[in-house]
Design brief:
By secondary structure, the chain is of the alpha/beta class. It contains twelve helices and 13 strands. The chain has two domains: 69 residues, no CATH class; 278 residues, P-loop containing nucleotide triphosphate hydrolases (Rossmann fold). Bound molecules: guanosine-5'-triphosphate (GTP), magnesium ion and zinc ion. Guanosine-5'-triphosphate (GTP) binds next to helix 2.
């Protein structure tokens, strides 16, 4: 790992950096995170040395100097080439974090192994926070709204597709407010948009479907549902500065679809097993067609508009929890995710993690 190396994109500050050589280790001392330099040159056993390196970090030099806090990347970040970045876009409380946590919990349980995809956690320390969220959700505890201090990625995985070289995968989840273009401090936070390889756009039935249950919505909910979606608009306007926006693969999902469980044809899709059987592009086409019809039925112009602006795309109905919280930050009957991996499988197929003819047809 010596000699000239190409610049590497830092997924946190989005600078292109010269890969640093100094290693660091992170430790919890008196309840505080501290970073110590790690010197592995004294090791005589290369296997052990290499193992220790996989647990280490490097400090991003942040050449643009725009990051107040120093930040660190897994030392293996540069080992497998450019990571694929998938970001979640949606207004605040649309269910982004619950969905991402439910997805990752399912995939880390090996639920995509029948599709030849195996996952490994790349940043164990970062993952610790995420793991706490997975545990909370499993215990039926409602997760907190995403704090805008979290600038960094939500999760960093190494994907090991069967018979092919491993490839890093990074998920970004920021607060819904951070997509808002008029929010001056937001430029930095949703910056991952410009580095994303695929996006997942989400909205829930209450706000995303203006024509759904109009009579049972509060006046405030009705007017918010009629108004533009500032998160979608902010994200799209930033993406439009990229010339190839339309080429970016996307999935659009109606979150909290447990609210629509008695609605035809949503009921049909919610009853189907998640990611079962061999990958079939027709299933994605059929679900997309049905969700499109639901969006039209309930005048969901903002979601339809997003969908229309991209050329490789799928649509889904998902439920991260399987039901509503009791309003006191809990899910008393526990959580049961429904169809959460289907959009992820679509995105993984569309970003090249699956290398089959069927996968090449997904979203077309
Ligand atoms: N019924 C139902 N409610 C859900 C589901 N997922 C999330 N919720 C509720 O929706 C609320 C918001 O969910 P979050 O995941 O925090 O939303 P977010 O988009 O991450 O919000 P910000 O971080 O503020 O941008 C929570 O209070 C959950 O109780 C679901 O699948 N079904
Ligand atoms: Mg969130
Ligand atoms: Zn950086």
């Amino acid at each position: 790992m010596t000699g000239m190396s190409a610049p590497v994109l830092c997924p946190i500050c989005l600078d292109n950096i010269e890969w640093p050589n100094t290693l660091y280790q992170r430790e919890l001392r008196d309840g505080k995170l501290v970073w110590d330099e790690l010197d592995l040159t004294g090791h005589t056993n290369p296997t052990k040395q290499e193992y220790l390196r996989t647990l280490a970090f490097v400090r991003c030099p942040n050449p643009s100097g725009d990051s107040a806090e120093p930040h660190y990347l897994p030392a293996i970040h540069n080992d497998y080439g450019k990571p694929i970045i998938i970001g979640v876009v949606g207004r605040s409380t649309s269910g982004k974090t619950h969905l991402l946590v439910a997805m990752l919990a399912e995939l880390l349980r090996g639920r995509l192994s029948s599709h030849g995809l195996h996952f490994e956690i790349a940043d164990r320390v970062q993952h610790q926070t995420f793991d706490d969220e997975i545990r909370k959700l499993r215990d039926g505890v409602q997760l907190q709204s995403t704090n805008d201090l979290i600038q960094s990625f939500a999760s960093y995985l190494i994907v090991r597709p069967k018979g092919r070289p491993p490839k890093p995968l990074i998920f970004f989840d920021v607060s819904g407010e951070d997509f808002n273009d008029s929010n001056v401090t937001s430029t930095k936070q949703a910056g991952f948009l410009l580095a994303a390889d695929a996006l997942l756009f989400v909205d829930d039935p209450v706000f995303g479907l203006p024509g759904w249950r109009t009579h049972s919505k509060t006046a405030e909910q009705r007017s918010a549902a009629q108004a533009e979606n500032k998160a979608f608009d902010g994200a799209i306007s930033r993406l439009l500065r990229q010339t190839n926006m339309a080429e970016l693969p996307i999935a659009v999902a109606i979150t909290k679809a447990d609210m629509l469980r008695y609605e035809f044809p949503v009921d049909h899709w919610l009853r189907r097993d998640d990611v079962s059987g061999p990958l079939d592009p027709r299933t994605f086409r059929e679900e997309s067609r049905d969700v499109f019809a639901v969006l039209q039925r309930y005048q969901a112009e903002t979601m339809l508009n997003v969908y229309r602006q991209f050329s490789r795309r799928t649509m889904h109905v998902v439920s991260a929890t399987g039901g509503a919280s009791d309003g006191q930050r809990n899910f008393p009957r526990g959580v049961r995710p429904i169809r959460v991996l289907q959009p992820l499988l679509a995105l993984l197929a569309m970003t090249g993690f699956l290398d089959t003819r069927a996968a090449a047809e997904v979203g077309r």
